[in-house]
Amino acid sequence: MSAPFEERSGVVPCGTPWGRWYQTLEEVFIEVRVPPGTRAKDVRCSLQSRHISLAVCGQELLQGKLFDSTVTDEGTWTLEDRQLIRIVLMKTNRDAGNCWTSLLENEYAADPWVQDQMQRKLTLERFQRENPGFDFSGAEISGNYSKGGPDFSSLEK
Asked: Distance (Å, rounded) from C-alpha 45 to C-alpha 57?
């Protein structure tokens, strides 16, 4: 079985002071660098539908209202190698037109070039899902791809 589309096509990360975040059609990934040797008991993480907070050793690293809603019960966080916290949020709205322009409502926005690349990637991911027999991981998009790209659903097969 081949790797999932996002693994073959790479990610389009948005850098932040504490790490980075990126997205697929279904999920938002947050990677937070923490001091080496951090233990799980040092981490306080709250994941709600529209709100996130993360504190390590009593110091708040990330807190605020998310750009869009997520499925609360499906959000997870892990501490990897005692130096990286990875948070995975499941988007409520999972279509290609739902490209988050920032992680929080007013913070950690993707610059215009990164936003453009994110939207292109989500559009390609949508094409891959709609056409499972084709590999779009190396494809290039030109033209109208905003809001999830063109809608081909009305075309006859």
From this structure: 11
For the whole model, what pTM was predicted? 0.83
Domains annotated on the chain, with CATH:
3-128 (2.60.40.790)
22: CB partners within 8 A, 6+ apart? 11, 12, 13, 14, 28, 29, 118
CA separation, residue 73 to residues 54, 60, 70, 90, 112 (Å)? 17, 23, 9, 9, 32
At 38-57, the pLDDT tens digits run 999 999 999 999 999 999 99
Do residues 107 and 66 make contact, with C-beta atoms less than 8 angstroms apart?
A: no
